[in-house]
Amino acid sequence: MILQAVALTPASFAPYGQVLMAQNGVPERTVWAASVENLRPNARGNVTYMSLEPEHYPVTVSELERHRFSHQIFVPLEGTNHLVVVCPSTNDGIPVINKAIAFHATGSQTVNYNANVWHAPRMVLHHPGAFIMLRWDTDTDDDTDLITLQQPFIVEPPPGIDIS
Questions:
Q1: Quick one: 2-23+34-156 is in which CATH superfamily?
Q2: How high does pLDDT run on average in the chain?
Q3: What residues pair up with 51 in beta bridges, in sequence order?
Q4: Which one of 52, 99, 125, 130 has the fewest CB atoms closer than 10 angstroms to its CB?
């Protein structure tokens, strides 16, 4: 399946979580800007530093993951552009692969996935990049569900976005 990425906006991502970004210029302060829900009393906040090698369009997405009990926030560092791929699920929690959506996120956009949202693992675009990630974990297999796609997605760049 081929997906064409679109520019990430708070409105387009709302069914899957929140996008934190300047809306009205500087200075700006938005309180309660994202959900950080923890659905397990024994989970602890897990702050992780991630440094990644870049992917280049077209990008192949071969896995999806979800975190049934926790939101997951990615804060890009140093202007890291990144690819966000999400997939709705059935009431039984099965990803609806043919409804996947790809977003091209800029280095000024923080992404917060709602709990139980299927998404591709974190990918940076065209240059090495880094993130701070926050998720509630118990260090058990319940933290992350991971599936390998029988047929990977190919994600093409959005029209009009400089990918250099």
A1: Ureidoglycolate hydrolase (2.60.120.480)
A2: 91
A3: 130
A4: 99
